[in-house]
Amino acid sequence: MEKKFFGIKKEMLSRPKPTVWVTRSLPAADRSSKNWSYAGFNPLTFPLLEISKPSEEPNLPLKKGILVFTSGNGVRAFSEKTTERDWSVVTVGKETQRLARKFGFEYPLTANGDSRDVANLILNNFSKDNNIYHCGGNNLQGSIVKDLLQKGYNAERLVYYNSTPVKVKPSINVNEIDYLILYSPLAARTLVKYQFNLLGVTVISISKATKDALGTLKGVRHKVSREPNEMAIIDLVKNLEVMND
Fold first, then answer.
1. Among 51, 67, 167, 227, which is 20 to 30 Å from 117 by CA?
2. 84 and 62 Cβ atoms separated by less than 8 Å
3. Rounded CA separation 40/48 (Å)
């Protein structure tokens, strides 16, 4: 039987490691780099976005409320504001769920999907007596709060961090890049803004919304992850490597 290492054929291990541009903001980019290295790739971290605190932070939600996190940045920003962990928590995916557990939230539920799945999970598991708080950044994607309000829930959006494009064009040599990973629509729009020549580079988007934000780039192969999480992205790139062999 043909041997494989992390999904890559054994004979491919003698070739130079494919280079991956990790574009997500710090500190999440550090964990992503470890994931890519562990999977047999050469990651280069040059964020397209940066995270900062808003000038005015919201008050803490009511304890009987449900916290919704759709990004790791949201979990971190909220957890830095308070040491209290008495809320019920719903997360968009397994990575966000893992991070919520790491920061001390017990039994966080995960929709393991997108914003629509989050809304459906809440509709199916929580009554309208619960206040819903979508805790995130200034560029929240999806319509969780809107969808829940239409169903008669008390829901609101709370901004605990700002995500903005980096002010200086990343000094990465794109000629060294095999794959470019986009983790959000805002990152995609930032990439377009800086007008990199990505001829021959394969771009991987975490979602269709991210792909749509990038649009069509001449000479660029563009793929979308089957699920909106990094493990699915890594699996996609490993499969592309096998197909290219």
1. 51
2. no
3. 23
Residue at token pair 């999480």: 229
Tokens describing residue 119? 């809304």
Q: Which helix (H) or strand (E) holds 164?
A: strand 154-165
- Which DSSP letter does residue 71 get? S
Checking phi first, is residue 6 left (phi over 0); if not, alpha (psi -120 to 50) or beta? left
Bridge-based pairing of strands 49-52 and 154-165 is antiparallel
**Domains identified in the chain and CATH numbers:** 4-48+168-244 (3.40.50.10090), 51-164 (3.40.50.10090)
| Nearest-angstrom CA–CA distance, 141 and 147 | 13
Q: What is the pLDDT of residues 92-133, one digit of tens each?
A: 988 899 999 999 999 999 998 888 899 999 999 999 999 999
The answer to whether residues 201 and 181 touch, using CB atoms and an 8 Å cutoff, is no
What number of other Cβ atoms are within 10 A of residue 68's Cβ?
A: 31
With 90 as the cut, is the pLDDT of residue 148 above it? yes
How far is the C-alpha of 182 from the C-alpha of 50, rounded, in Å?
A: 14
User: CA-to-CA distance for 188 and 167, rounded, in angstroms?
Assistant: 15
Task: Give the model confidence (pLDDT) of 205-244 as tens digits.
Answer: 998 889 999 988 888 899 999 988 899 999 999 999 988 7
Reported pTM: 0.83
